[in-house]
Amino acid sequence: MLFRRIYQFFIIYCFGLFFLLAVKYSLGLSDYVIPGIGEIAGVFRYEYKRYFIDAVNTLSVAVVGQLISICLALFIGIVGRQASWFGSFVKVAAYNIQAYPIVAIAPIIFILLGDGFLTRLLIAAMICYFPLLLSVVGIMSEPIRDIEHFYRITGRMRWQLEVKIRAFENLGKLTAVISGSATLAMAGTIVAEFIAANAGIGYSIRIALYQSDLSKVLAALFLIGITLSVYQGLLEWSGKVLRRKWEGH
């Protein structure tokens, strides 16, 4: 699964790169507009280490932001699974927060927290959590009737057991949505870095754009794709391992 994601990204990236080069040579554009293959290769050779460190920095923030989003989504999903007043209130509050666009909230966050780690972390979590929330609320609100009925009539049903049953029966969906949300976490971190942060691959892309250096942008995009592919592959592998462990295999 991991290697498949990596080579699939390689194919997509190479296709996009060849398309750019085809446009460059068919229209006779200068290297200032679209860099040649030699200039792109030079950036990969001389800037790879620095950009790799930046990409890992961004990924680390995205991972922590995603973990916060997962915990928040699980908490709201578990609390809001019952049709109670408090459960409804928690869900409505979570939905309403998402109604505010991040571009409107980001300046407030930067004013309060500056342009460091916490700002990137908070924006990543805010962008990432809503798809997780919708999936978790849907899963936790849908009873597994046959199994839950057995435990209820035997008097053994507790809320912890109810949550475990629903999570196990929908583990494939949870794994898929967590893996997919990694993309949003990474994108949210890059957005924060691009707006006003002072570190990370998004910051490096912003500097490259100020310099009108497309070859550096292409190198940064390559490393973003590689790190994200590896991370998503590890998430999917972890989900399969967890399912086998729960099934007792």
Notes on the protein architecture:
The protein has 249 residues and is mainly alpha-helical. It has helices at residues 2-27, 37-79, 85-98, 102-113, 117-141, 145-153, 159-169, 171-195, 201-210, 214-247. The chain is elongated. The protein starts with a helix and ends with a helix. The model has no long low-confidence stretch (mean pLDDT 79).
Structural class: mainly alpha
Helix content: over 70%
Instruction: Please tally the β strands and state the result.
Output: 0
Secondary-structure element string: HHHHHHHHHH
Query: Tell me about the biggest sheet?
Result: none
Strand content: under 5%
Using only C-alpha atoms, the radius of gyration works out to 22 Å
**What are the segments in which pLDDT stays under 50 over at least 5 consecutive residues?**
none
**Average pLDDT, to the nearest integer?**
79
What is the helix tally? 10
Distance between the termini: 20 Å
Global geometry? elongated
Gist of the model:
The chain is mainly alpha-helical and 249 residues long. It has ten helices and no strands.
Describe the structure using short key phrases.
249 residues, mainly alpha, 84% helix, elongated
SSE inventory with pairings:
Blueprint: H1 2-27, H2 37-79, H3 85-98, H4 102-113, H5 117-141, H6 145-153, H7 159-169, H8 171-195, H9 201-210, H10 214-247
Helix pairs in contact: 1-10, 2-5, 2-8, 2-10, 3-5, 4-5, 5-8, 8-9, 8-10, 9-10
